[in-house]
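Structure (tokenized):
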């Protein structure tokens, strides 16, 4: 009996997807629910599970093809799995058992990790797993690839040392740089995520009147709180107390005072959102994704840190869902983790504002007539000037600054 493999039902906001890669080839046996292919949408990578066990008889769509919901991808022959095969020799049976044991011991991998493994020709079973549950994450695969590259470089250097004279002789015959005429280029198509990011950024700049205001915040009080309660916080919640939870809570308090910053423009109307769904930007190899903290005003510091950590892990594994990336009334991005001292972030439309965090840097500050070295951070708020006036934008940023410099405000709501 033949079973068709079709494109799963895509989310309502996604028109099509790109078939990135097949993990099985025609004629190979497959197991029910085994991932056969990866589909890349504008935001996430979706897996195509096998609907039945059997043999993959025919692949209808090749890698790199754009597909839509319900489109036929391949055909599985269920009967072929029950077809008797010639009895294997003892040696072949032993080899098959060894291979089966290796396959059974192989850890689970996500789409992003599988791509790194396939590109670097790694053995999944030999990769050290850091995440609980035995799942190979993308960071595990990247670390294994780096270790393999380092080992290859060491062997290369050893070979170079043994043939130094030959290398110097060959170098003498290399033409000078001015005489070389070959200048190589590589053209690589954008991934769907990168193309979507480009489209949305250009759209935001062309449809909104974007303006950025800046301020600076002394994070000494926040650092003192973190160092005082870090151990007890981690024991209770299972995660470290980071800076992002303070910024999320401070942003919520500021949004309550200035509802227009939490609003959006729809045609000629201003839509005031009476809930606080905050997007937190996460950078992954494929681009930038912004998972959303729903009802952030109801979350504790521990819940915020747990959800952000989970979002970051699953985004890098490629297992985050489209629903977790949609919506949002306000966003926060942290360029400081890459060393950025100041930037002008672009609004994540249709939102009307985004808060930019930056690197914490010790700087001399004048405090009560004395020069004191303090841990300072520049803050940036980019906003849609069509509905947010400069006064409101500046006061909003000042409200965040006040909450962070005196964290007790976050507990008292003042």
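Design, position by position:
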């Amino acid at each position: 009996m033949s079973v068709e493999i079709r494109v799963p039902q895509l989310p309502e906001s996604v028109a099509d997807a790109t078939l990135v890669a097949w993990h099985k080839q025609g004629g190979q046996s497959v197991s029910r629910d085994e991932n056969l292919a990866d589909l890349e949408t504008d935001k996430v990578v979706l897996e195509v599970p096998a609907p039945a066990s059997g043999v993959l008889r025919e692949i209808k769509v090749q890698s790199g093809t754009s597909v839509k919901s319900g489109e036929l991808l391949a055909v599985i022959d269920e009967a072929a799995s029950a077809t008797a095969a010639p009895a294997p020799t003892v040696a072949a049976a032993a080899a098959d058992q060894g291979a089966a044991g290796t396959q059974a011991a192989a850890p689970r991998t996500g789409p992003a990790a599988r791509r790194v493994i396939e590109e670097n020709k790694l053995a999944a079973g030999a990769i050290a797993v850091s995440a609980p549950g035995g799942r190979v994450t993308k960071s595990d695969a990247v670390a294994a690839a780096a270790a393999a590259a380092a080992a290859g470089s060491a062997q290369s250097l050893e070979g170079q040392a043994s043939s130094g004279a030959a290398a110097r002789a060959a170098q003498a015959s290399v033409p000078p740089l001015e005489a070389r005429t070959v200048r190589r280029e590589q053209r690589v198509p954008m991934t769907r995520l990168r193309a979507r990011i480009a489209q949305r950024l250009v759209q935001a700049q062309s449809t909104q009147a974007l303006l950025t205001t800046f301020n600076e915040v002394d994070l000494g009080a926040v650092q003192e709180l973190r160092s005082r309660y870090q151990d007890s916080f981690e024991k209770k919640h299972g995660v470290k107390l980071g800076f992002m939870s303070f910024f999320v809570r401070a942003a919520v308090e500021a949004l309550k005072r200035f509802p227009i910053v939490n609003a959006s423009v729809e045609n000629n109307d201003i839509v005031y959102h009476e809930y606080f769904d905050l997007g937190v930007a996460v950078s992954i190899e494929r681009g930038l994704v912004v998972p959303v903290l729903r009802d952030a005003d109801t979350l504790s510091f521990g819940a915020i840190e747990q959800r952000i950590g989970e979002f970051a892990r699953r985004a890098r594994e490629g297992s985050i869902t489209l629903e977790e990336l949609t919506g949002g009334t306000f966003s926060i991005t942290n360029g400081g983790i890459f060393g950025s001292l100041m930037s002008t972030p672009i609004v994540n439309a249709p939102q009307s504002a985004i808060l930019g965090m930056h690197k914490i840097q010790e700087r001399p500050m004048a405090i009560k007539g004395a020069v004191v070295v303090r841990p300072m951070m520049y803050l940036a708020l980019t906003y849609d000037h069509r509905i947010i006036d400069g006064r409101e934008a500046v006061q909003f940023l000042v409200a965040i600054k006040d909450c962070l410099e005196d964290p007790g405000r976050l507990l008292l709501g003042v």
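Reviewer-requested clarification: The chain is about 35% helix and 25% strand. The chain has a mean pLDDT of 82.
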